[in-house]
Design goal:
Structural class: alpha+beta
CATH architecture of the largest domain: Up-down Bundle
Largest sheet: 7 strands, mixed
Distance between the termini: 50 Å
Helix content: 40-55%
Strand content: 15-25%
CATH class of the largest domain: Mainly Alpha
Number of domains: 2
Number of strands: 7
CATH topology of the largest domain: Butyryl-CoA Dehydrogenase, subunit A, domain 3
Number of helices: 13
């Protein structure tokens, strides 16, 4: 699909990007090894895509263009990690078989996010795009700005390494929550389940920040306090304490008892400083390392 940006509607373009968000997240979560970091990358990529859209004269393939931006944002995050951690090298970040069928697809779908992280980024991107998202060799080349021969080579090597890693894909045990983390999280969940929203509002710091992922961001106790009104009018949830990727998290279950999404909380001096609610980004649960507390 070609979009002639001077005459195209920016709002329609934003809606198209929003519709792609779950697929972008599936890619970014596997590139970064984290559903949380993956969503950060998606948000960054969408901001950059909207900014670039206003300056571009024509976009020949919107989906490939958006995925290329997301891919580059993921590499930026990996480079940032390179400066902080020794387990991935800058060389690996810079490295950029013919397609098989169901066996490879099932293997990629079953692999954990941490297993994907053991592949070099170029191999990782090719395997994810073909075996998880179903892109063709040509489409992968468009996203990664690579030749078909390069895509084939990276796909072959990545699949071979993924097969070797498949037998050793057990997730590491989650660390136990500290007594303070457990107390804060349990207290918040208990008040939520009791629908004591005034008590929850009293927990907020004056400069508390809310990220209702995919919808809106707010700041300040008086404004963020209105966030709980969204839950006051609904009865389709039950909260439980737990962990997501080792971080304390509120796990939110639907009426059928299925995990629907999660909420991350940050505290400062016994007051809630950050709320990150994934109610409108439920795709983030896919592939997440989740532990129910207790």
């Amino acid at each position: 699909m070609t979009i002639d940006t001077p005459s195209a509607n920016a709002e329609a373009f934003a809606l198209r990007l929003a519709a792609m968000r779950p697929r972008l997240h599936r890619y970014c979560a596997r590139m970064t090894g984290s559903v949380i970091d993956g969503e950060d990358v998606v948000q960054d990529a969408m901001i950059k895509a909207l900014e670039a859209f206003s300056r571009a004269s024509e976009i020949a393939n919107v989906e490939a263009w958006a995925f290329r931006i997301a891919h580059n944002c993921a590499l930026d995050l990996l480079r940032q990690r390179t400066r902080q951690q020794a387990w991935i090298t800058e060389e690996a970040v810079e490295e950029m078989a013919d397609p098989s069928v169901d066996t490879e697809h099932r293997l990629a779908a079953a692999a954990s996010l941490k297993t994907f992280m053991q592949l070099p980024p170029a191999q990782r991107g090719c395997v994810i795009l073909m075996d998880v998202l179903g892109y063709s060799l040509q489409e992968i080349g468009d996203v990664l700005d690579a030749s078909t021969a390069s895509v084939k080579a990276n796909l072959h090597r990545g699949r071979a390494q993924l097969r070797e890693l498949a037998d050793d894909d057990a997730p590491p045990p989650a660390r136990p929550l500290s007594e303070l983390e457990r107390r804060q999280l349990t207290g918040y969940v208990d008040r939520f389940n009791a629908r004591d929203f005034d008590a929850l509002r009293a927990m907020l710091a004056e400069d508390v920040r809310l990220d209702l992922v995919g919808r809106t961001q707010d700041k300040g106790k008086s404004v963020v306090g209105n966030y709980y009104s969204r839950y006051e009018g609904h009865f389709d949830w039950r909260m439980a304490p737990g962990q997501v990727e080792g971080r304390p998290a509120v796990l939110v279950y639907d009426l059928a008892g299925e995990l629907a999404y999660f909420i991350l909380l940050d505290w400062s001096a016994e007051r809630l400083s950050v709320i990150r609610d994934f109610r409108y980004a439920r795709y983030v649960v896919e592939g997440a390392a989740i532990k129910v507390d207790g």
